[in-house]
Amino acid sequence: MYIVSLSYFRPVEEVEALLEPHIQWLDRYFAAGAFIAAGRKDPRTGGIVLAKEMDRARLDAILAEDPFVAVANYEVTKLNVTRATDDFAALVGI
């Protein structure tokens, strides 16, 4: 799976202006089964998306569709989950 860390480089007012289309983008890829979880960082300096295993070029194409590309930088880390608590056991091997 991938951990995608978004860090805002524009003021939060500009982020807010793109929030609804960003949520629609998230909804589309949750429905498609590409995303596992997503949420804001605290403090609100960006967000995190957990994405299922896929070809990296496909992930990059999905991320390029996010309206937040105008206001955030993306750092992508591939994570091979090998251990998890019972509550997160479904993540092993994703």
From TrEMBL:
What the entry lists under InterPro entries is as follows: Dimeric_a/b-barrel, YCII
- List residues of the YCII-related domain: 1-77
Could you tell me which SUPFAM superfamilies the record lists for this protein? Dimeric alpha+beta barrel
Coiled-coil ranges per the record? none
Question: Please, which domain of life does this record's source organism belong to?
Answer: Bacteria
A Pfam family the protein falls into = YCII
Q: Matching PANTHER family, A to Z?
A: GSR2449 PROTEIN, YCII-RELATED DOMAIN-CONTAINING PROTEIN
Family note: Belongs to the YciI family.
The entry's protein name is YCII-related domain-containing protein
**Organism of provenance:** Candidatus Pantoea deserta
Q: What is the lineage of its organism?
A: Bacteria, Pseudomonadati, Pseudomonadota, Gammaproteobacteria, Enterobacterales
